[in-house]
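Bumping with the actual sequence this time:
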Amino acid sequence: MAMTFKINSQNDGKVVEIIFAGILDESFALEGELELAEIDHLIFDFQRLRYINSTGIKFWVGFMANVNAHTNIHSTFKNCPKFIIDQINSIIGFLPKRGEVESYFIPVFCERCEKSFRIHQFSKDETTDENEIIDSIQSLEDCQVFPKCRDQLVVDVAPDSFFRFLKANETEG
């Protein structure tokens, strides 16, 4: 499945939201679709993105370098799956200099029903404590026993490395 994207433009093109779906790979060709000099705010929605390969990462970092060259552009990443957070944490330039992560998904595993879930979290909540994250969960889609299984839930990431991007948001913001 090749990557597709939808571009929504507001305020005479000053605010642009890009919604990704599929796989970000060598088919990444956003460069020619946008006039960066006219944009003040780029919003990237990764909720329906399924995967990013090494070529997609290379093209993405090149695109972010072009975004960085336009000092007027602020960028917001939202609905980031774990693999996007992993790239933000490990690759310099994946998140632009004037960029922030608005929201992301935390992988959670239920030891009782042996299923994995994704919990949507907003960066402004800034909790990295596993117990606070578990306590904040209101429901789990496709879980028949929730909330009875709450004591069996575990955050399925290494918190020290996964939440590094929040500290970067604090120092840059």
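The tokens above came from a reply further down the thread. The radius of gyration is 17 Å.
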